[in-house]
Design a protein that fits this description.
Four copies of one chain form a homotetramer. Chain A is globular. Chain A is built from nine helices and seven strands. Chain A has a seven-stranded mixed sheet, sandwiched between helices. The longest helix of chain A has 24 residues, at 213-236. In chain A, a hairpin with a 3-residue loop joins strand 6 (198-201) and strand 7 (205-210). The first copy, chain A, is α+β, with helices and mostly antiparallel strands. In chain A, helix 3 runs parallel beside helix 8 (213-236), helix 3 packs across helix 9 and helix 4 crosses helix 7 (183-193). The B-C interface holds B 60-62, 81-85, 87-88, 113, 135, 137, 140-147, 167, 169, 174-179, 202-205, 231, 234-235, 269, 271-273 and C 151-155, 157, 225, 228-229, 232-233, 235-244, 246-247, 250, 253, 255-257, 259-261, 263-264, 267-268, 273.
């Protein structure tokens, strides 16, 4: 009896081993051309960036990533919402929006209520081609504190001498729902972001931007890392030497990081932390 | 060629899916209808919530989750105790209790000594349909401190401007065993809980309630997350901007989180962290 | 070509799946009766406790666990040293020592230089039947601080109102090698331990004792957890409510924890964190 | 019966061992003798040290490890750069450099811009045969603080009463790019390192040296561990008892750690954290 169970288990194990090899192709599986003018690798890479950010503990069940449409600057691409947590986003889940954050081809799918973070930033920041919104644990303490989040190490040089904090009460008043879920709120957030790479959202998280998906994802991760390091440095007491204005201009080579992250996200199920 | 690989992958995926589906059915494996009026999905979901809370580091070997009986408001359902750690609870381990926390069908099984936490709360909180008791690491420091645990970010808005702390010495005196293991102690705890969603238990952990299992589990996790964030914010020094009374009323959409958690808990053995 | 590689991979995967099922039996594999009067389950459980403590982050490459010989109170059992890290200890690695910490059947094997921690404690503590020596991360900060480590939550009630700290300079002077590697140093350590369950070792780690292996392992883990929680509570500032003398006497039910830990350690390779 | 199961298990274990051994040989797979005078085990161990340091959270996508050429003290060996993250370094990726940090056999491969850290240290430290450059999270807060990083526990005795901090502005001025990417900067760094085992690099990370690869890797890990412990101790407030000058001279046995780390790194894909 035990013998037969063993044989059965071996058979299933063998088949599953082969099945697991099918996962990466499942991410890019497209039953029909969904988004005009966007090739599959672009959709796959955007989907994969969700997984990368879950692996790096920047996204949990919340948060989203978008890119400006590669062919049409007045559109952006982002995953649908509903029950779809970031860890499980695939290329098939990517939708197209105009810069007012209207879905182009809704087909009854649920949308992220805070898609306006993305649309309104793309409107006023022509240099930005990717946006990450996260509730990353490192930044939330800074979002509710008077202590500015500043570049403490060179991998986060882009933080410069401080990033702005969006206080939703400023334009929405005391009685607000803490969400950037309208065009007006998105506009207010984009205004606070200004020319910065990051804006903290008080009691909420952050929005991080970049000229490419790779840069935006890198910045989202290293903003969170820098935040944690700055809290540790605060524990030691005394003055902290932050990056000066020149050091903050440092260009960051990130190919190595991006390749490693994509490789890790392609192979391993982020839900299996 | 790609078509054939796709068909092959689908076939393998189907077999694996069947194999993987064997796991949740193992969780819900029922040799006989154990609890009248409770269907298997309900039992399975309750069992799964134990695993979810282990995955989220809210439960370790201690702690328990209950739901009010879906058909009889004077009963509640919770796992047996004994050697059964939360990570291994299955639908077969769920037992039924009256609101005095007596087991309906004992059959010699070991009971959680602190089941009174659940029964006594259900008695006085008709709005509550699920209770989590945990020793989560984030809350214990607050339970022994004079600093109130308050909502610092929007995912924990339900914490409002502070949660009460149950000091067992108040009704049990200095010479107590730190456990809510009688009806009287459970009543005292429920009284301190009042209308709040959470009550901290000094030097012990917390009890978290909700109108559904999903809400109670979500709150248990985000109470712990908020606690950790509040400690981090404290390290930065200076005033902290907590959620105000309006922001604290924010309703939290949690479908995405619940689905992701269930999916993760169904597939992966939480003991394999 | 790819087809053949796939078949080959499937075959290997199937065989490995079966092979992995053989791991637990390998832990208890005994080529010959090594230790008179000690049965295999006892040796296996002692070996497994090393893995448990690695899983719980109490042991890393350093540290050791011993039990008093179940038949001869003047002997104790502990793993050999050399290149053998705790994560890989098996029943075959267990050796027997007298209470002067001499190996009974050396056979050229390397011994832990700090075995004297165990032998000298067994001499003066007839109530103790298991000892854990660790470099756990939680306790080291307390070992070098003036702040006493005290029971902050009920799972660590055994810490009472403080544990002693062994300062090696007291008997060995300034010019010491930080190791309890002689009978004299072991005696000094045991004297500081006194009747306590735990003694911190300044700038080193701790020694934790119990009437059984299960209790000693439980205490080793919860000493570390309590230490981390006490540091977190310190972050909040203000007075901390520690357990009082009565609460500290609380007996801790630990069957559930022990079973869960053994189950986890039996199945999963702790090196695969 | 047990005998037959044992034989069966042994057989299966052997096949799996062969399968698993395929992994390290993949690491050392050499299509042709690449580096004259360096045997394959040496290259494999250097490649493996990258993985070890990723497992121990000392390296992420950044950082590098080198050894002095075993036959020619005027050469050193280090991995190529480009898209190759530390977690994926294999023996094939190791390149040879002269002490001016010029590649001996470039063949169009990308080099780490900060290879000068290694070359310049080897020039002035004839006792050093291995160098690790990391951005480890523990040390960065110390690198920007006035609080010296000191040996707090015996496994990090080599830190002694403090390690120097390289402030790049001292020789490169305010307008610098934060990188040790020239011979001159490397010389300045080596000067600050002096005779120490570690030099922190302000707002960047550290460089750690040793007489062997094993010692340098051990020191890189335990510098990071000690840093984290020192921050925790700082949180308790009050004076900290650091190791005195005698205790700091303690020789550290590290065979057990090295074997455990190599074993762990050989079997498991560090990207699967």
């Amino acid at each position: 009896m035990k013998q037969r169970m063993l044989s059965g288990s071996l058979a299933i194990a063998a088949v599953c081993a082969a099945g697991l090899l099918a996962v990466p192709s499942a991410i890019s599986q497209s039953t029909a051309p969904m988004l005009a003018g966007v090739d599959e690798p672009t959709l796959t890479e955007l989907a994969l960036s969700y997984r990368i950010l879950v692996n790096e503990r920047v996204l949990d069940a919340y948060g989203h990533v978008s890119i400006r449409h590669p062919k049409n600057p007045n559109r952006f691409l982002m995953a649908r919402s509903g029950e779809l947590a970031p860890a499980y986003v695939t290329a098939n889940d990517i939708m197209e929006f105009d810069l007012d954050s209207n879905a182009i081809d809704l087909r009854g799918r649920a949308l992220h209520s805070e898609r306006f973070i993305h649309g309104e930033i793309y409107k006023v920041r022509p240099d930005v081609n990717a946006v990450v919104h996260s509730h990353s644990r490192g930044v939330i303490p800074f979002s509710v504190s008077k202590t500015p989040l500043r570049a403490i190490f060179h991998n986060a040089a882009f933080l410069g001498d401080g990033v702005p904090v969006y206080e939703i009460r400023d334009e929405s008043g005391e009685n607000n729902d803490m969400l950037v879920n309208t065009n007006a709120k998105g506009r207010a957030l984009a205004k606070v972001l200004g020319a910065h790479p990051v804006v903290l959202m008080r009691g909420h998280g952050d929005a991080v931007v970049g000229p490419s998906l790779e840069v935006a994802v890198f910045r989202a991760v290293y903003t969170d890392v820098n935040a944690n390091l700055q809290i540790q440095a605060a524990m030691l007491g005394g003055p902290i030497t932050f990056l000066n204005q020149y050091e903050a201009k440092k260009r960051q080579g990130m190919e190595r990081t991006w390749e490693a992250w994509k490789r890790q996200a392609s192979k391993h199920d982020p839900a299996r932390r």
